[in-house]
Amino acid sequence: MNVLGLLLAGGKVSATPGRWRCFPVPLESSLFQTLRNSCCRKKTTAPKKIIPHVDFSDENTKESGKALDKLFSSEQQASILHVLNTASNKELEAFKLLRGRKSINIVEHREKFGPFQNLESLMNVPLFRYKTTLKVCKSILSPETGGKKKKLPENQLLRKLIKPEVGRERLKAVNSIVSIVSGTRRIAWAHLDRKLAVLDWQQNECCRLMKGTYPSSVYLEEISSVISKMPKADFYVLEKTGPSIQNSSLFPVLLHFHIVEAMLYALLNKTFAQDGQHQVLSMNRNAVGKHFELMIGDTRTSGKEIVKQLLSESVLKEEPRVFFPPDKIVRYRQLFSSTEQYRAEELYDSLLQAVAFYELAVFNTES
């Protein structure tokens, strides 16, 4: 008889080092009688309630759209719709939240489908979800004006976003950047100009790193080789990341990231220095994740699907968010396809970081 059978029969099990001992106990024991009754209870004959499956996704979207109309009076809605339906691309860019692709998407949607009939219809425009649409509507009603109140939040944003601090004039004058993301086995980079055209996008395997005792000569040789392939740009933007030092098991990975970051800083500044000014910046990884809505709590998810969408839009749209030159699009699509099996996150992240840098740090500082 197995252990469960003995228990149901009113037995008792005792564990001693190395073996189990089983011996009977009186059936009157309340504990074992309760166990026996609960395990041997007859199945109910009452019919089970069948709860039909309902897809709430579309209903939630509609409800969000209807909620928008309830948040604003009829006069406010008319004012917002007047701006959305009559403002040119440049006039829309006067609103901070509509700079970059958002203003272009509004104009394209308006030309293709006609004027916006209600605030809900704005959610049909690419890059406009409920929260974004709500913020845009509020900004149209209460546009930010010049003065110290506008500059202070902007400066705080830049300080949280990139380090070391860079003057607004230098950011406004940026013509191209190289976005660099390093992992434990590879380093990837994306070279983009201010029109968000991808001039170069590739990755290098660095399999010798994180082996043995972290020899400095190996790091120097590997990273120097990678930098020699990088083009000249106004800024070199590194991803600022790393696991918490409180997790001792991840200390080797943290040490690796710090070594790579330090060498990239030193070698890039030495190679591409201009007038003694910083050319290498660090960008907050989670800020990029929030920009592309990749964050779940404090965890950033993969940007693979967003990159895949950007590649498709470059072919299907006349004015895509990111432009891949026709003579290189085939090679970039092949590069992306070759990484789908092992998910080269560094490659995806380098492109997304470059786009976020322009949209958050460059376009948002232009007056």
UniProtKB/TrEMBL annotation:
Subcellular localization: Mitochondrion matrix, Mitochondrion nucleoid
UniProt-listed InterPro entries: RNaseH_sf, RuvA_2-like, TEFM
Signal peptide, first to last residue: none
Family recorded in the similarity comment: Belongs to the TEFM family.
Domain of life: Eukaryota
Job description of the protein: Transcription elongation factor which increases mitochondrial RNA polymerase processivity. Regulates transcription of the mitochondrial genome, including genes important for the oxidative phosphorylation machinery.
Keywords (A to Z) from UniProt: Elongation factor, Mitochondrion, Mitochondrion nucleoid, Protein biosynthesis, Transcription, Transcription regulation, Transit peptide
Quaternary structure and interacting proteins, as annotated: Interacts with POLRMT.
GO MF annotation list: DNA polymerase processivity factor activity; nucleic acid binding; translation elongation factor activity
GO biological process, one term: transcription elongation by mitochondrial RNA polymerase
Sequence intervals crossing the membrane: none
A single cellular component GO annotation: mitochondrial nucleoid
KW Protein biosynthesis (keyword) present: yes
Keyword check for Transcription: yes
Species assigned in the record: Vicugna pacos
Coiled coil: none
Entry protein name: Transcription elongation factor, mitochondrial
